[in-house]
Amino acid sequence: MYRIGSGAGFSGDRVDAPQSVVASIAAAGQGGAIIFETLGERTLALGQIARKHHPERGYEPLLEDLLEPVLAQCVANNIVIVGNFGQANPPAAAAVIQAMATRLGLGALRIALVEGDDLTGRIDLAQTERWDGDGRLPDLEGDVIAINAYLGAAPIAEAIRAGAQVVVTGRVADPALVLGPLVAHFGWAWNDLDRMASGTLAGHLLECGSQVSGGFFADPGFKDVPGTADIGFPIAEVEADGSFVITKAEGTGGVVDLRTVKEQLLYEIHDPAAYLTPDVTLDITAVELAQVGPNRVLVSGARGHAAPPRLKATVSFYGDWLGEAEISYAGPNALARARLAITTINERIRMRQLGVRHRADVIGAVSAFDSDEGDLLVDYEDEAPGDYRVRFAFGSNSQRAVEQAVQEVNALYCCGPAGGGGVRQSVRPRVRTISHMVPRDLVEARYRFAEHHP
């Protein structure tokens, strides 16, 4: 049996979650692996922008918070670390990890980099097809930031077989983070499609972190989840035949049962008979689930078909500018004053001919008037007269026009309806992404060890 856990399901996940996962795998005394899935389409684009402005950046911003508390324990217990936390700059991430290891007195680690996903400047998008799933999206205009293909598990497996203790990737298919270590451990053949499917399914269930163990699941009174402040992240206990048990870290909150596993099983599945990945086409129509103990679900029956001939690639573009601003109104007749604020801003946009797209929403019952402890609202009567937050959003290719529109909301302080307050405002560039299908022969997936490799 091989244990592989999840330490993160997205960029921004709980930074202390990996600690209980590593502790549980280490306690079993058989080694294993932990994965970190921290890369979304826009996350990667933001990483590309960060690298262009600062060549030493472009990797997962929380990398040190996630990894430093568990790095020594992983090394000591033969737990391989695999993460797409390299984002747009795996070499920089590797350097940070090695610096961590040096600080911790671990010496030089065997850190492998997976490369080949960056196709920027290597393909003509006009010669490729858009991915069907983006079919309803409008065509994008603007400068291309980057084009990154979804790589498969092969370079990850090869790196681990060559002795890597840490594998740093950029864009790979999320399930490949799990399939790679499983292929390396069990020696599965790449043409053993059912085992490729099983490993991919295990990766699919782990890729979103706690979503399979009670995260993003709780609905009090309908789907109760204990210990939501300390949800245990999942661990797959995988057998050589590809069957596996999904469980979670010992001594943690959350829940693993048929409901949580079914929800994650169907996550982002467009066709249950043909879930396309770079390594295999996964067929879950014959998958069986069984509750085999508290917080333990047995998964079996995944079937595999030939991998698709093309790979999906994310194309990132610079978009327009987004401005957001909010203001609150509370007390008697608050809703009418909130609506008057919207009318006022609409008129000001027209009068100044700012040329921005805009919308406004009255969104809330909790305003910025109250303190963090909520002790101001207690002075209201049982039937509060009202407490409303108005959110404005502005979009344009002109940064200046968006800034001017946002400033108009700030001006409501003295020029708008009575009693407005708690203005928050921001202006930032937007990144847009769309997916294309690219020929496999344009993608050269590979690994190499970092320059400090011992």
Automatic annotation (TrEMBL):
Acyclic terpene utilisation N-terminal domain ranges (all copies): 3-447
Superkingdom as given in the UniProt entry: Bacteria
Pfam families recorded: AtuA (PF07287)
PANTHER family cross-referenced by the UniProt entry: DUF1446-DOMAIN-CONTAINING PROTEIN, PROPIONYL-COA CARBOXYLASE
Protein name: DUF1446 domain-containing protein
Organism listed in the record: Devosia salina
